[in-house]
């Protein structure tokens, strides 16, 4: 199986941080609801941008209840992290950028290798070079990113896949996708803390209802950490576990790899992988890989 991988970045935890920064720049008071088990780096960064952090329980209903209390007390307007069409479209712009960047890269490679020259035009044995991505795989928590990227690829021929941890039922998106019924509640302590939330109603309508996502895959905690170690040691990039879930699926999920081999043939796929975050501390890295030995 041949996969040419193009990573792109989209930071989990940064909805809170981006909203905090935007509010500060515009002189607006903002309160951010965060689970009380959020990693210290996310909390510190959000406070650092001037937000007041309101803590809640770890489940989606607990977070929603805390947000409702803030709204009732202050009259504030809720800006959801994923379950809104505007948020989905905003997150989907990464799909547009990734498509453009890979097309430019492949065009440059084709030019350097001499494809498209007059000499080659007389040859029928060489295969036509690819001009863009075959597929994109993203992490899936609430589904805003996945559904947005899927919308960005609609009508392009680029297939879009989602990936999740399977620990303690964190693969709600996969289960909902396969059953046709959205799973409304999730309670999990997967190491991929940015993906501990159920898929929202609006994202699910795109992921399953419009069938713009071609499949969902899930991976183990060990596979996530193995992918994370690879990125840290070989790519020299600081990433959090949630970011590494799609890479883990590409590396270790036999169903996904069989799909690429079956449909990509000898040429394989040009695969875009969204690495969705770098919110992790040195202390946490030590614990993760110390326990993994």
The portion of residues forming beta strands comes to 5-15%
Straight-line distance between termini: 29 Å
Shape: globular
Give me the oligomer status. single chain
CATH fold-level topology of the largest domain: Rossmann fold
Q: Total helix count? A: 12
For the largest sheet, list the strands in their spatial order: 1-7-4-5-6
> Approximately how much helix is present in the residues?
40-55%
Instruction: Indicate the CATH architecture of the largest domain.
Output: 3-Layer(aba) Sandwich
Q: pLDDT average, as an integer?
A: 89
Low-confidence stretches: 119-125
Count of discrete structural domains: 2
Strand/helix succession:
EHEHEHHHEHEHHEHHHEH
Number of strands: 7
Largest sheet: 5 strands, parallel
Organism: Purpureocillium lilacinum
GO molecular function: ATP binding; D-serine ammonia-lyase activity; L-serine ammonia-lyase activity; magnesium ion binding; pyridoxal phosphate binding; serine racemase activity; threonine racemase activity
Protein name: IlvA, threonine dehydratase
InterPro entries: TrpB-like_PALP, TrpB-like_PALP_sf
């Amino acid at each position: 199986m041949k996969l040419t991988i193009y990573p792109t970045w989209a930071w989990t935890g940064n909805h809170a941080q981006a909203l905090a920064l935007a509010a500060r720049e515009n002189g607006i008071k903002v309160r951010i609801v965060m689970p009380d088990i959020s990693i210290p780096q996310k909390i510190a960064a959000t406070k650092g941008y001037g937000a007041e952090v309101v803590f809640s329980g770890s489940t989606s209903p607990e977070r929603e209840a805390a947000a409702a209390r803030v709204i009732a007390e202050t009259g504030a307007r809720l800006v959801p992290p994923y379950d809104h069409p505007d948020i989905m479209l905003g997150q989907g712009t990464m799909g547009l950028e990734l498509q453009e960047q890979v097309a430019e890269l492949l065009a440059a490679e084709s030019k350097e290798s001499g494809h498209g020259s007059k000499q080659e035009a007389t040859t029928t044995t060489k295969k036509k070079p690819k001009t863009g991505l075959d597929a994109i795989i993203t992490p899936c928590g609430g589904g805003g990113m996945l559904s947005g990227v899927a919308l960005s690829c609609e009508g392009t021929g680029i297939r879009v896949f989602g990936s999740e941890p399977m620990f303690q039922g964190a693969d709600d998106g996969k289960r909902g996708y396969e059953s046709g019924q959205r799973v409304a509640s999730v309670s999990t302590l997967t190491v991929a803390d940015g993906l501990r939330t159920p898929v929202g109603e609006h994202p699910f309508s795109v992921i399953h209802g419009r069938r713009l996502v071609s499949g969902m895959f899930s991976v183990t905690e060990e596979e996530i950490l193995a992918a994370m170690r690879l990125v840290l040691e070989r790519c020299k990039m600081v990433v959090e576990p949630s970011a590494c879930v799609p890479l883990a699926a590409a590396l270790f999920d036999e169903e996904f790899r069989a799909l690429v081999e079956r449909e990509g043939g000898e040429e394989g796929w040009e695969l875009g992988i969204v690495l969705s975050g770098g919110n992790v501390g040195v202390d946490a890295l030590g614990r993760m890989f110390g326990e993994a030995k």
